[in-house]
Amino acid sequence: MPLPPRRPPNLLRRVFRPSWENLAALVRGEDRQDLSRAEARAWSLALESRRVPHRVRNLGRGWRLEVPVWYAERAEREIRRYLAENPRPQESPPPPPRPRANDLPTWLAMLALLSFHALVSRPLPSLGLYPQQWLELGQARAELLLGGQWWRAATALTLHGDAAHVLSNAVIGGIFAGLVCRELGNGLGWLLILAGGVLGSVCNALIQNPEHSSIGFSTAVFAAAAILSGLRAADGALDFRSFVVPVAAGLGILAMLGSTGENTDLGAHLTGFAAGLVLGLAAGTLKHATEPSVRLQWMMGVAALALLPAAWAWAWLGG
Question: What's the pTM?
Fold first, then answer.
């Protein structure tokens, strides 16, 4: 059924308040809103030949071709004409949906973070262990980290000032980490989150004075939030607005959760977010080309699981 005529908006609205229609939904109905890559390219070429403005978006699970609402009727007419002149070949069935990652490893990791804080925050004279020892060995002190004690970039993620500090990081971190793992799988997801936290700690040490010390899992929490933003931005790589909006949303999260408070290390939050954004963009770009095998996911999961214990072992043996 043809769309009702629309009054073309003025030039300012076209530039600053564009509104878009999903062309596949108009042509095929609401049950088929996404296109294959070949279809999106063919439809785009057909519209370009008729000088119809449009944009193509990569959604990960498929492609979407959108047109400004005031061109929707014309675009629908052109595509219907194109399809009538070029019958569609038999399509292969769509790939099965990717299984959702299990959230249990993420919540076990957050429970381990809470348990570790309970362990290191109380003195154990029988073992000769005291909270100050853990802090001295594991905090990300800039001059020592950059002087070769690399393990501090990882061990600092597990240390917290008090129970409120670790609890907030565990709750917020569990939410963001779970979302990342649903996108990438538990192995790759957690490896990137910890890599973002470690890289953030190193970059923070580079921009701070030598006496600066940093602790807390929040560097990795903001890396996880930025990984999500990077994944969303990579999904809309063909469209500038789809790139900017997820990144702006991630910066908004940083402003709300990571820039206030007496003991807030804004530098660590910023560098963690920056590292996560780079990793998220890279992962989002690569995941469309290839999916990690189950075996590779397990290998990355084991690497992520071993990273923090290995760093603490090195701290005690090398420190």
Answer: 0.67
